[in-house]
C-alpha cells in the first residue's frame, strides 16, 4: 500500500484492476484504493507478471503492506528455460539473448519491510493448504512449527481444534425451527434434523420439545418475534466525509504547527492577459476556450521553474528540489473537503493542453478516480478561490511542500497606469512559503516572476 | 344487468369479460372502448364481439396499428374526463406504448401536483401456451408491476373477469388488466357476487395447512391441479391467487406463510427479476421466522418461447413442476 499523500497512513483496497497472471508495466494502474480523502488508482512500481494478490478488495491495510507479488515477466521466465530451439523457415536464426542472469526473487509491490512480507507469504505445502481450507483455518494466523517456520499439518489441526472448542458447531436449522426452539426451550444441538442435509425443521423441534406433546398445527396467533431492529449505522458517505475532515484536520494542524509560514502578496495587472484571452476565445470553438485560471496556473508553473527554491519538499530538515514542476491544484469536492492532485510537468504544457488537463483533473477528483502519482507528486500547490468570489487567499502549505500560491478573482479596479487613472482588470497573487526553506526575497522573486509572465500571455 | 342477474349461469371467461364491458358501456356514458380490431372484427380474441353493433362506432372504436398513438389518445381522453378502456392486442405490443404508460399515465398525477388523475383502463392479453412463439408469448406483467402510479390486475377466474372491470374503471388512476390468453375459453358457472368486489386483496382459492402455492393469472389452473395431486398424497396445499400484482397484498402472503411455513411461487414470467422474485423477497423480509424450508419458485425457462408444442410445454411451469417443487419444500 503506497503512501498517497503526507496525511495517509492506511488505505482501503477497493478493486483490483489486474489479476494473477497479468503482465503489468511500471506505471500501469493496477488497483483502486480509497483513502480518507479520495479514491485513487494505484500505479505499479515494477514491470513483471503478477503472481499473487495478497489483499482482498474491501480490506483496509496500513501503508507499507504488500498488496501483490510480481514475478519476472513471462518472457524472461522463458529465457531461463533450457533452450529448445526450433528453427523457423524464413526467419534468420536469431537465438534469443543468451540466458540472462536469472531473476529469482519475486518483486513485491511496493518494496516493503521483510517482516511484513514474511507474514503475507506462508510456507506451507499444498496438502497443508487444502487441509487448512477444509477445516476453515486461516493459514496467515498460524505460527509454523516446521523447519524454516513452515506450517505443518499438526499446526493446522491444533488451530482447528482450538477453533472448534469455544462454541458448539453451528446447527443447520430453518428460521422457524430456531424460533420454535427458543420458544419451547429446546436445545437445537440435541435435535436430530430430518430435512435436507440434516437440517433441523420445525417438526423436529416439536418432537424434541419437553412436556405434553406439542400440538401438531401450532403457531400462536401473534407470535413474539425476536427483535431484529438495530440502530442503523451511519451511511458510508457520511463516514467518508467525516474521515476526510479528519485527514484534512490532521494535515493542516501539522502544517500550521511545523511550518513557519511567511506571506507575500501582490496585485497583478491582467489587462494584457485578459485581452489576449478574449481574442483567443473569440477565435476558438467553445470546447477549446480558455479560462483565466489556465493563464494563472501556467504563470505559476513557469515561475516555479524560474525559482526552484520554492519547488520541492522540506523533509528531514533539508530542502530537496522537485524533479520537474508538478503543480498541485486545489480542488474542492462537492460533498465538502479538498484534494490537491498534481498536474504533472505543468510548466511544459501548452495552454490548450493545460486547460484540458485541468478539466480532466477536476472531473476525476470529483468522481474519485485519481492516480496515485497525481495525489503524491505535487511539488508546489496553487489554490484559486476566484471562482468563489474572494479577492485574496493566504493558504496553508501542504506538507512536505514549501510553497502555496493563491489567486483571487480577476476584478476591475481603478489603477494608476502611465500617470493616468484607468480601470484595469487585476488579480491578487499571494504566496505562503516555508521560512525554513526560503526567505522573503526568494518569495518576492517568485511573485514578481508571476506578474511579469502574465504581461506576455502569448508566450505562456 | 345482462348475464350477471341474480342466478347462477354458465359462461366463459371471454363472455364474462364482454359482459363486464357491456355493463360498463351501458352504465356510464363516459366509457368507451378502443383498440386494434375491437369493432368490426370483434376483438382479436373475440372479447368485444357484438359491442360495435350495440353501442355504435363512437363508443367502440377501431384504431390504427399504433399502440403509442392510441394509448396516448386514451390518456388524453381520460384527462379530458372520459373513462376509456384501451385494448392492446398482446403484451408484446404494449412495449410500443410503454413510454405512454410509464412516462405519462403513471406519472401525470404526480407531475401535476395531484391535479391530473388518469382514470384509464388498459386491457391486454398476456402469456404463452398457444404456440404463438417467441414474440407473442410473453408474460411481462411483472415488469408493469414494477411501476409506481398504476394498478396491475390479473383476473384468473371467470368471476374476476366479470367483476374486476367496474372497480378498475372507478379507480382514479391507470389500471392495467392482464388477461391470460389460455383463459378466454375457460368455462364455468358464474354466480352473482356475494360481496363487493375489491381490487386490494389476494384470494385463497383453496385453503390448506402444509404449503402455500402462490400464483396468479394463467398459472392458477395448473396450480389448483397441483394442489389436487398433492392432496392425494396427503399434503394439504393452500392456493393463493394474487389477483392484484400491484400493489401486492402483503398481508395475505404473510398470513398464508404463517399457516403453512413453506412456499412455492408459480409465475409464468422468466425467473430472473420476476414477480416471483419480488414475492420471494417479501417473504424473506417479512416472514423469515416463519419459514421451515427455503422458498421454491416455478417459473418459465429463461429462453425465448419455443414454437414447437413440446418445447413450449417444457419451457412453461407445469403441474408436475409445481408438485415437484412442493415436494422439495415439504419432504
Automatic annotation (TrEMBL), chain B:
Keyword Oxidoreductase attributed: yes
SMART domains recorded: Transket_pyr (SM00861)
Cofactors named for this entry: thiamine diphosphate
GO MF term list: magnesium ion binding; oxidoreductase activity
Domain Transketolase-like pyrimidine-binding: 11-186
Pfam family, any one: Transketolase_C
Keyword annotations of the record: Oxidoreductase, Pyruvate, Thiamine pyrophosphate
Alphabetical list of NCBIfam families matching this protein: PRK09212.1
Entry protein name: Pyruvate dehydrogenase
